[in-house]
């Protein structure tokens, strides 16, 4: 029983990291209908920028701020050079454009800041904590708390600021939002910038875990099943989806893995997502679209 | 986002509806004669091995994916997984069925890949668009895992790799570059001919109807689910044959890692750059994808005289690649093949504009 609980809790905590990546997706998808494949590349870029700044001796908070500014500038450029010319194109086209975008960002990140693995120390001790008999990683706890904090900040931003309200208006009905004078391009810039900052937080936590390196950008693939389970349009769904995927992955590796040869984490989440899809084709919290001819 | 009702509507609309009798396609015949008769004797081994063979195999893979994504509108990012099935299945057939001729082994490998593709296509009846992409990603990662994890597939070799047991046809060895080139070329020509006719047939029309709007297709009485699964199977057949050729005619020795997700993306790029929903586009796209790195390498050598390290050059390559893809999507969403068509039209009426 202790082993089960430990595996479950470890999975749930790891799941919050998946949720963090997925939230970046949901933000952009809701506001601009773009499935942003470049989210992983943005994560890598942000983490690399942060580490490079820290290596230059820039203090933590300043580095965080500077990287956020860099991500915001990146968002401006992306909106101008990629999104605006592609407005009104099909979703698949936009998705493929973000595939291209991820190549550019990855190339830039590695070209400017090098391809070697960088260690990232956030000053969190990774000592195991014991609650009764159950061992929990302290780092995971801090990461989960950060994720929770980020979600609260985002919720406040969305519900209680002018920007947030217009953002939700755009997500609800783009045309209606345009007609009451909301500046769509501005909203896109803001959303991409916010997604960049969310990517920074996720990148730092992942980077502290496994080192800042190219494989960070592959986290994006891990976020897909999370999105599928939670639905593309719901932040709450992204969180629940992340928790489900994290827990299920850990449990499956521990209990099903030994039966069929182990190492099943690379694909298990996708199969889980498939099962969910079969039952609910638009995810747990996604909106069902009604098709008309 | 309001108009989420048809996420699959492709921007392409060039269905080959040509009811007039066609003339003999002379340029095509000349091209074929050159490819079969002249190139094997002109091209040196480097050209055959490093450029022509991969170009042809990638074209075939692009063709396979295009049938699924460009013609039927089902986006797949698992192309390389099905290529792996074809490669490993062909290997098993050649190894375990004594005396099986190579063409039959290739056919068998393709059919097994088609069966696997059919299986992974089943969810397409309920799942659409981005959600379907997850199915193909599941296929990609699952298949990669299977071919690494179970030694039976690579005959318990310690390195986990497979290599062609024998490449021969009617007693002639095909192991030389020219032999492998001719093997690949004949396969590609044959399968392309099949594909051209397939997309002009009722099957192809149904696929395009599903791509353009599957609800509407269902309303006019097309059995949508069955044709989607058929598209998965046919596409996987092509990819499977391409995978076997990639492993045995090009690489020589392959492992599951030769068919990773990056290969899938590469093939997706071929059809984006070449042209979705176009047969000839695959060849243009594959030529572009396989020549661009060589060109960039040469340009890098020439510009910097070898002072730039390979890593930076690769990063530069990535950036140029990404920028090109975005540029294409913005300027010419129908791909290079459309650009070539436009150019041909221009030349026809030159020097006038219309």
Automatic annotation (TrEMBL), chain A:
<keyword id="KW-0812">Transmembrane</keyword>
<keyword id="KW-0029">Amino-acid transport</keyword>
<dbReference type="GO" id="GO:0022857">
    <property type="term" value="F:transmembrane transporter activity"/>
</dbReference>
<feature type="transmembrane region" description="Helical">
    <location>
        <begin position="90"/>
        <end position="109"/>
    </location>
</feature>
<feature type="transmembrane region" description="Helical">
    <location>
        <begin position="187"/>
        <end position="207"/>
    </location>
</feature>
<comment type="similarity">
    <text>Belongs to the binding-protein-dependent transport system permease family. LivHM subfamily.</text>
</comment>
<feature type="transmembrane region" description="Helical">
    <location>
        <begin position="139"/>
        <end position="158"/>
    </location>
</feature>
<feature type="transmembrane region" description="Helical">
    <location>
        <begin position="7"/>
        <end position="28"/>
    </location>
</feature>
<feature type="transmembrane region" description="Helical">
    <location>
        <begin position="60"/>
        <end position="78"/>
    </location>
</feature>
<dbReference type="InterPro" id="IPR001851">
    <property type="entry name" value="ABC_transp_permease"/>
</dbReference>
<keyword id="KW-1003">Cell membrane</keyword>
<feature type="transmembrane region" description="Helical">
    <location>
        <begin position="219"/>
        <end position="248"/>
    </location>
</feature>
<protein>
    <submittedName>
        <fullName>Branched-chain amino acid transport system permease protein</fullName>
    </submittedName>
</protein>
<dbReference type="Pfam" id="PF02653">
    <property type="entry name" value="BPD_transp_2"/>
</dbReference>
<keyword id="KW-0813">Transport</keyword>
<dbReference type="GO" id="GO:0005886">
    <property type="term" value="C:plasma membrane"/>
</dbReference>
<dbReference type="InterPro" id="IPR052157">
    <property type="entry name" value="BCAA_transport_permease"/>
</dbReference>
<feature type="transmembrane region" description="Helical">
    <location>
        <begin position="254"/>
        <end position="279"/>
    </location>
</feature>
<keyword id="KW-0472">Membrane</keyword>
<feature type="transmembrane region" description="Helical">
    <location>
        <begin position="34"/>
        <end position="53"/>
    </location>
</feature>
<keyword id="KW-1133">Transmembrane helix</keyword>
<dbReference type="GO" id="GO:0006865">
    <property type="term" value="P:amino acid transport"/>
</dbReference>
TrEMBL record, chain B:
<dbReference type="GO" id="GO:0005886">
    <property type="term" value="C:plasma membrane"/>
</dbReference>
<feature type="transmembrane region" description="Helical">
    <location>
        <begin position="75"/>
        <end position="94"/>
    </location>
</feature>
<feature type="transmembrane region" description="Helical">
    <location>
        <begin position="178"/>
        <end position="199"/>
    </location>
</feature>
<dbReference type="Pfam" id="PF02653">
    <property type="entry name" value="BPD_transp_2"/>
</dbReference>
<protein>
    <submittedName>
        <fullName>Branched-chain amino acid transport system permease protein</fullName>
    </submittedName>
</protein>
<keyword id="KW-0472">Membrane</keyword>
<feature type="transmembrane region" description="Helical">
    <location>
        <begin position="24"/>
        <end position="42"/>
    </location>
</feature>
<feature type="transmembrane region" description="Helical">
    <location>
        <begin position="265"/>
        <end position="296"/>
    </location>
</feature>
<feature type="transmembrane region" description="Helical">
    <location>
        <begin position="48"/>
        <end position="68"/>
    </location>
</feature>
<dbReference type="GO" id="GO:0015658">
    <property type="term" value="F:branched-chain amino acid transmembrane transporter activity"/>
</dbReference>
<keyword id="KW-0812">Transmembrane</keyword>
<feature type="transmembrane region" description="Helical">
    <location>
        <begin position="100"/>
        <end position="122"/>
    </location>
</feature>
<dbReference type="InterPro" id="IPR001851">
    <property type="entry name" value="ABC_transp_permease"/>
</dbReference>
<feature type="transmembrane region" description="Helical">
    <location>
        <begin position="230"/>
        <end position="253"/>
    </location>
</feature>
<keyword id="KW-1003">Cell membrane</keyword>
<dbReference type="InterPro" id="IPR043428">
    <property type="entry name" value="LivM-like"/>
</dbReference>
<keyword id="KW-1133">Transmembrane helix</keyword>
<feature type="transmembrane region" description="Helical">
    <location>
        <begin position="129"/>
        <end position="147"/>
    </location>
</feature>
């Amino acid at each position: 029983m202790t082993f089960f609980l430990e595996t479950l809790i470890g999975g749930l905590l790891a799941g919050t990291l998946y949720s963090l990546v997925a939230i970046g997706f949901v933000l952009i998808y809701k506001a601009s209908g773009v499935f942003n494949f470049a989210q992983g590349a943005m994560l890598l870029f942000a983490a690399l920028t942060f580490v490079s700044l820290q290596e230059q001796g820039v203090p933590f908070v300043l580095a965080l701020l500077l990287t956020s500014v860099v991500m915001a500038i990146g968002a401006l450029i992306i909106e101008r050079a990629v999104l605006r010319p592609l407005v009104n194109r099909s979703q698949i086209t936009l998705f493929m454009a973000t595939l291209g975008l991820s190549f550019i960002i990855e190339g830039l990140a590695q070209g400017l800041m090098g391809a070697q693995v960088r260690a990232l120390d956030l000053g969190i001790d990774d000592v195991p904590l014991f609650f009764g008999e159950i061992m929990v990683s302290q780092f995971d706890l801090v990461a989960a708390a950060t994720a929770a904090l980020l979600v609260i900040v985002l919720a406040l931003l969305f519900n209680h600021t002018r920007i947030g309200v217009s953002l939700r208006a755009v997500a609800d009905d783009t045309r209606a939002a345009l007609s009451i004078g909301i500046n769509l391009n501005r909203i896109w810039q803001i959303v991409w910038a916010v997604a960049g900052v969310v990517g920074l937080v996720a990148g730092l936590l992942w980077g502290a875990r496994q080192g800042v390196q190219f494989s960070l950008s592959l986290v994006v693939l891990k976020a897909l099943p999370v999105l599928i389970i939670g639905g593309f349009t719901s932040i709450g769904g992204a969180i629940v989806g992340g928790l489900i995927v994290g827990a299920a992955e850990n449990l499956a590796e521990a209990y099903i893995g030994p039966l069929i040869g182990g190492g099943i984490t690379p694909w298990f989440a996708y199969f889980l997502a498939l099962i969910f899809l079969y039952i609910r084709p638009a995810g747990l919290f996604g909106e069902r679209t009604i098709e008309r001819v | 986002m309001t108009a989420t009702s048809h996420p699959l509507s492709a921007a392409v609309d060039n269905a080959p509806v040509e009811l007039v009798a066609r003339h003999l396609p002379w340029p095509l015949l000349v091209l074929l004669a050159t490819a079969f008769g002249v190139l094997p004797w002109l091209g040196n081994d480097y050209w055959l091995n490093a450029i022509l063979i991969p170009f042809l195999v990638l074209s075939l893979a692009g063709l396979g994916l295009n049938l699924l994504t460009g013609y039927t509108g089902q986006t797949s990012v698992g192309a390389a997984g099905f290529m792996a099935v074809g490669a490993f299945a062909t290997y098993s057939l050649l190894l375990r069925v004594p005396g099986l001729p190579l063409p039959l082994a290739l056919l068998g490998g393709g059919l097994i890949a088609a069966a696997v593709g059919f299986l992974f296509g089943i969810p397409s009846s309920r799942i659409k668009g981005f959600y379907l992409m997850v199915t193909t990603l599941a296929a990609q990662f699952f298949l990669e895992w299977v071919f690494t994890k179970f030694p039976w597939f690579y005959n318990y070799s310690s390195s986990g790799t497979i290599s062609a047991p024998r490449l021969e046809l009617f007693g002639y060895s095909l192991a030389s570059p020219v032999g492998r080139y001719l093997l690949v070329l004949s396969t590609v020509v044959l399968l392309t001919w099949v594909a051209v006719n397939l997309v002009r047939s009722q099957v192809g029309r149904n696929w395009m109807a599903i791509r353009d709007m599957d609800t509407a297709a269902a309303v006019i009485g097309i059995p949508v689910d069955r044709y989607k699964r058929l598209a998965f199977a046919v596409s996987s057949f092509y990819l499977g044959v391409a995978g076997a050729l990639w492993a045995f005619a090009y690489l020589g020795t392959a492992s599951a890692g030769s068919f990773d997700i990056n290969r899938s993306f590469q093939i997706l790029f071929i059809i984006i750059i070449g042209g979705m929903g176009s047969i000839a586009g695959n060849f243009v796209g594959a030529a572009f994808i396989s020549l661009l790195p060589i060109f960039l390498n040469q340009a890098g050598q020439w510009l910097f005289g070898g002072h730039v390290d390979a890593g930076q050059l690769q990063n530069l390559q990535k950036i140029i690649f990404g920028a090109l893809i975005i540029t294409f999507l913005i300027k010419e969403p129908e791909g290079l093949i459309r650009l070539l068509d436009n150019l041909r039209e221009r030349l026809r009426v030159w020097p006038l504009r219309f």
